[in-house]
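Predict structure. Chain length: 133.
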Amino acid sequence: MDTLTRIERAIERFEDALIAKVFPNEPVELLGALREECDSQAVVCSSSRVVVPNAYDVELSDEVYEELSRHGKQAGQTLTDSLMRHADEQGYEWAGPLTVHVTKSSQVPNGRYRVAAAPLTHIRADAFADGAA
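Prediction complete.
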């Protein structure tokens, strides 16, 4: 088990280094900001259960958004995959299905990005059946 953990960490370090070379500094900083937001919003329910928000909003400045848009869906998927791996490593449980929503905004405080998280409950298909009847 210990060997598997070391291999996983080595792969994550390799991926982070690769991202840093392919993209500018913002995605690496965004990964850190997403992880920090996840950690800071964690709720300890019991000794074996820690729940974290499942909906993350990432607002990017125009410049950063345009840079990441050049790489297509790859950047958004990389952010989501990295956050999923981080939660798995920490033993976190999601409050629902994980989503990372990336938008462009001219109102970001640091001029580059802003990250916010919130727990959103599951949407059940049977909830819509009552309204149709």
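Summary: The longest strand covers residues 55-60.
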